[in-house]
Amino acid sequence: MEIISIIGWIHILTMVVVLGGYIFLCVFWWPVVKRATDDVRLQVRLVALTLRRFFTSVVLALTVEILTGGLYLLPHAYRSFGSGEEMALAAFHQWLIWKLVAVFLVIFLVPAQLFGMAFRVTRMDAGIHEFDPDLFGRIMQRMQMVSYVIIALLTFTVIVSTAMLN
């Protein structure tokens, strides 16, 4: 297996790690925390502890994804297409543009979620912000909505990346 192929699979693996983390949070963790206890302070504590670890791994995985994406995608593409395959190269570029749009949206949404929403919850847990159950509920609704958008975008990028790798 050549190095470009290994880098490509690392790229896809990091996307799957982030995607799996978001699916776990949205489908399992947040609903379970909400239903397990009516104590909102305990919910804030559980969510804050989870988000600290989760966003550390997400930021690390997205950094690896960006680095490996640039390393494997373009050199591999131009070696794969020969003369007389201009239409195939044009189709590749079209898919590449759609994928990059989705990736840039994810790169915008994850920090917005981290710095705009998760920090409020972690600061509420630490006592820096005043504890407000209504604010916590609104933040969690927004985080779930943004997480579903991120899940859709990452699913799209995994599918496109896998197709582009072959």
TrEMBL record:
Entry keyword annotation includes Transmembrane: yes
Keyword vocabulary terms for this entry: Membrane, Transmembrane, Transmembrane helix
Taxonomic classification: Bacteria, Pseudomonadati, Nitrospinota/Tectimicrobiota group, Candidatus Tectimicrobiota, Candidatus Entotheonellia
The protein's name: Copper resistance protein D domain-containing protein
Domain of life: Bacteria
Entry's transmembrane regions: 6-33, 54-75, 95-115, 145-165
